[in-house]
């Protein structure tokens, strides 16, 4: 399959690869936390400072692993659509969001870019990916 000449080939595979690597890291950390605690779920059985226990329980390994699986499926589905990352740089002055996607390729690019935002502080994150 030939690449669309309008796409920036150095960005397209890297954004989905970046996300899959971050998801794998999150999955590894959740699996290690479950193994270290001796249980897969922390629902209600966590001792933590007031207010923190709910947060910890909400991010228990079982939930994080399920979230990783869902995110991975979403990234792979978007990658299969061949995202058009040109949308990410297309925004009128003063707007901090890109133009609305007009087709599935732009929607896939925007979805990947939004999924990558929580990892923006990672050294491999590229500013060009910011929606």
Summarize the structure.
With about 130 residues, this protein is mostly helical.
How would you characterize this protein structure?
InterPro entries: DUF6221 (IPR046193). With 131 residues, the chain is an all-alpha fold. The chain has one domain (12-84, 96-123). The protein has helices spanning 12-37, 52-58, 61-80, 104-116. α1 packs antiparallel against α3. It is elongated and about 50 Å long. The two termini are 27 Å apart. Mean pLDDT is 79; it is low at 1-13.
Sum up the structure in keywords:
single chain; mainly alpha; 4 helices; elongated; disordered N terminus; DUF6221
Judged by helices, strands and strand pairing, the structural class is mainly alpha
Helix content: 40-55%
On the 0 to 100 scale, the average pLDDT is: 79
Q: Strand content of the residues, in percent?
A: under 5%
Q: What is the end-to-end distance?
A: 27 Å
Largest β sheet strand count, sense and barrel closure? none
How many β-strand stretches?
0
SSE order, one letter for each helix or strand: HHHH
Indicate how many domains the architecture comprises. 1
Give the helix/strand layout.
Layout (H helix, E strand, L loop, with lengths): L11 H26 L14 H7 L2 H20 L23 H13 L15
Helix pairs in contact: 1-3, 1-4, 3-4
């Amino acid at each position: 399959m030939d690449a669309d000449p309008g796409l920036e080939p150095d960005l397209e595979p890297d954004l989905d690869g970046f996300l899959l690597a971050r998801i794998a890291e999150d999955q590894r950390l959740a699996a290690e936390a479950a193994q270290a605690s001796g249980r897969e779920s922390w629902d209600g059985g966590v001792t933590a400072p007031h207010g923190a226990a709910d947060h910890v329980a909400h991010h228990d390994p079982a939930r994080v692993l399920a979230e990783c699986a869902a995110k991975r499926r979403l990234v792979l589905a978007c990658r299969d659509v061949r995202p058009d990352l040109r949308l990410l740089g297309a925004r009128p002055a003063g707007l901090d969001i890109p133009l609305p996607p007009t087709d599935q390729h732009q929607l896939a690019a925007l979805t990947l870019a939004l999924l990558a935002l929580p990892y923006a502080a990672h050294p491999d994150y590229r500013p060009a990916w910011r929606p």
